[in-house]
C-alpha cells in the first residue's frame, strides 16, 4: 500500500556528497509508491572495489525492485520505463563520468537528450547525483571540467524538478518543493 505522506512528485532531484545517504533516501522515497519499482543504475564495475559497491547497492534492493543497467543510454532507459512505474536513477555523476570519458560522445547533445527524457518521463522519476561543487578547485583540467559539467547539469535539472533535496549526514533537506 502506497504511503501518501511520501508522495513522489513527477521529478525529484536528490543531491548529496559521498556517503551522505542520498541513495538510501531516494530508495525510501520511491519505495513509498506502489511497486514494482525500476532502478536505473549507471555504475560500471571496472575494478573489485566498484563491483563490491554495486553488489552492496543491489543487496539493499530486494524484489519488487527491477534493475536496469544504463551506464551510457540513460535517456533511453528513462524513455523505456513502463508508464506510471516509479523510477530511480542512481547516479547522474557516474553517467556524466561515463559520457565524458567516451571520446566519441557529444556531451551537449547527450545532456539535452537526458533533460528531454526527464521532462517527458512516463511516471515519477527520482534522480540521484553527487554534489561536487562544495570542495576545493580540482588540480587537473578533466576534474575541473567534470565539476563544472556536473554543476551545470544539476542547475538545469533543478529548474525542471518539482522537488530538490540535499542530503547531508543522512539528513534530507528540501531546497525546492514540498517536504516529504
Automatic annotation (TrEMBL):
One GO biological process term: cobalamin biosynthetic process
Domain of life: Bacteria
Pfam families: CobU (PF02283)
Catalysed reaction equations from the record: adenosylcob(III)inamide + ATP = adenosylcob(III)inamide phosphate + ADP + H(+); adenosylcob(III)inamide + GTP = adenosylcob(III)inamide phosphate + GDP + H(+); adenosylcob(III)inamide phosphate + GTP + H(+) = adenosylcob(III)inamide-GDP + diphosphate
EC number: 2.7.1.156, 2.7.7.62
InterPro entries: CobU/CobP (IPR003203), P-loop_NTPase (IPR027417)
Keyword Cytoplasm recorded: no
Gene3D superfamilies, per database record: P-loop containing nucleotide triphosphate hydrolases (3.40.50.300)
Keyword Transferase set for record: yes
GO molecular function: adenosylcobinamide kinase activity; ATP binding; cobinamide phosphate guanylyltransferase activity; GTP binding
Pathway involvement of the protein, from the record: Cofactor biosynthesis; adenosylcobalamin biosynthesis; adenosylcobalamin from cob(II)yrinate a,c-diamide: step 5/7; Cofactor biosynthesis; adenosylcobalamin biosynthesis; adenosylcobalamin from cob(II)yrinate a,c-diamide: step 6/7
Active site per UniProt: 57 (gmp-histidine intermediate)
Family: Belongs to the CobU/CobP family.
Biological role stated in the UniProt entry: Catalyzes ATP-dependent phosphorylation of adenosylcobinamide and addition of GMP to adenosylcobinamide phosphate.
Name under which the protein is recorded: Bifunctional adenosylcobalamin biosynthesis protein
Source organism of the structure: Methylobacterium aquaticum
Classification of source organism: Bacteria, Pseudomonadati, Pseudomonadota, Alphaproteobacteria, Hyphomicrobiales
Gene field: cobU
Amino acid at each position: 500500500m502506497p504511503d501518501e505522506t511520501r508522495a513522489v512528485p513527477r521529478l525529484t532531484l536528490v543531491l548529496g556528497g559521498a556517503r551522505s545517504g542520498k541513495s538510501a533516501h531516494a530508495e525510501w522515497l520511491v519505495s513509498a509508491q506502489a511497486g514494482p519499482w525500476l532502478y536505473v543504475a549507471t555504475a560500471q564495475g571496472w575494478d573489485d572495489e566498484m563491483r563490491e559497491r554495486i553488489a552492496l547497492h543491489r543487496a539493499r534492493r530486494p524484489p519488487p525492485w527491477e534493475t536496469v543497467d544504463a551506464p551510457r543510454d540513460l535517456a533511453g532507459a528513462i524513455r523505456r520505463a513502463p508508464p506510471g512505474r516509479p523510477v530511480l536513477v542512481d547516479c547522474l555523476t557516474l553517467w556524466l563520468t561515463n559520457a565524458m570519458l567516451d571520446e566519441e560522445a557529444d556531451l551537449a547533445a547527450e545532456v539535452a537528450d537526458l533533460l528531454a527524457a526527464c521532462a517527458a518521463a512516463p511516471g515519477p522519476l527520482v534522480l540521484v547525483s553527487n554534489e561536487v561543487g562544495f570542495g576545493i578547485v580540482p588540480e587537473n583540467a578533466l576534474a575541473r571540467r567534470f565539476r563544472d559539467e556536473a554543476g551545470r547539469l544539476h542547475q538545469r535539472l533543478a529548474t525542471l524538478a518539482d522537488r530538490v533535496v540535499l542530503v547531508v549526514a543522512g539528513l534530507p533537506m528540501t531546497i525546492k518543493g514540498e517536504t516529504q
